[in-house]
Amino acid sequence: MKGSVITIIGGGLAGCEAAHQVTRFGLRVKLFEMRPKKPTPAHKTHYLGELVCSNSLKSDSLENASGILKEEMRRLSSIVIEAADQNRVPAGKALAVDREGFSRYLTSKIEKNPLIEIVREEVQRIPDHLDSPLIIATGPLTSDPLSEDIKRLTGSSHLYFYDAISPIVDADTIDYSKVFRGSRYGRGKEEEGDYINCPLNEEEYYRFVEELIKAKKVETKDFEKAIYFEGCLPIEVMAERGKDTLRFGPMRPVGLVDPKTGKTPFAVVQLRMENKEGTMYNMVGFQTKLTYPEQKRVFRMIPGLENAEFMRYGSVHRNTYINSPKLLYPTLQFRKNELIFFAGQIVGVEGYVESAAMGIVAGINAARIALGQKPVVPPPETAIGSLIRYITESHTSDFQPMNINFGLFPPPPHGIPKSRSRSFIVERALSSIKEFKTQLKYYSN
Hints:
It is a single chain. About 30% of the residues lie in helices and about 15% in strands. By secondary structure, it is of the alpha+beta class. It has two domains: about 5-160 and about 320-440, FAD/NAD(P)-binding domain (3-Layer(bba) Sandwich), CATH 3.50.50; about 165-320, Elongation Factor Tu (Ef-tu), domain 3 (Beta Barrel), CATH 2.40.30.260. The strands form four sheets. It has a six-stranded mixed sheet, covered by helices on one side. A six-stranded antiparallel sheet has the order 10-11-12-13-9-14.
């Protein structure tokens, strides 16, 4: 198959990552992206790798499992992490990005790669016969025709859940006399104003929760059952679980002191910078399915946001994923046809970085197959390997999407003190990814 072109369907994070990795082996790619010819309910631009939910890629610290995953990806020359590093905005220990700058950078890098041909067309059907590897990286917003064909291909129904988007506020419309800047426990460079904090007293908080619960929501269609991923629950769904749920969740005030009072607020809403210019702020943890008028009414009850203008309202859309433990090998190859790979959120990982990481593995293995080499699997001691083990070895009857977390890593051996367990996992992961990279024999480095 040497000299063949590898086809990738989907120009999101996983698709771009897979394309980049394939070309590092000196192979050509045909990358299909249906936008802007066929839009989706969530995307707003024609850029590849557009971020439709938060602008945060979560923690960049090695004290966090997400930070380990990012570092592994850096060591594998991730194009997504490169784009994020080049377009980051202040967010404490988190890697948050200028949303448009990130996608524009990624698009430019892919467009300028001489080995990648971008085809702006919708793919509605997977070919029955393949002569070279095909990577399906269509993500959570797979089109209906292709979704039905994947259902045909896999011989099983899709599983799905709902993913909600947080609103974005115009920075000029925030009442800065009522808010204060800072990160929890003083983390991050406070003078850069990583977060804007909107404090609520007890009366304000409970009145807000009451109106949030009463507010009108976007109706779910009768034939669709809303299954929310726990890490991305709509704010009103959390509020319905109990009147104090929010102040122990996304509105928790711990580690924050309002300099105006010298005290910790009863509850707080955090706003995170959305772009480098600081003209837009994202309402952290405020993903929602409220109707637009109700978002404006209820969220303006928050101190400092009484006159806020919303540059983007929150929304809700369906995410799709396959039953990977039943359908995929740990190489991300489809069990019924080893020339077909799946990558990204569709395999049952949750999160930007996790999705992109699956694109790395699919791209590497598709290239190796095309070159007549054996596919490889990152060691389970790595963050990438532990994710793959989860999506391919979980029980098929109750398989659900998962973020990277320390619970997925193999535990340290007996004799390692509990106080050293996290640092041991970090050191072992980075050592293992270094060894894994030596197997790859990249055409370019």
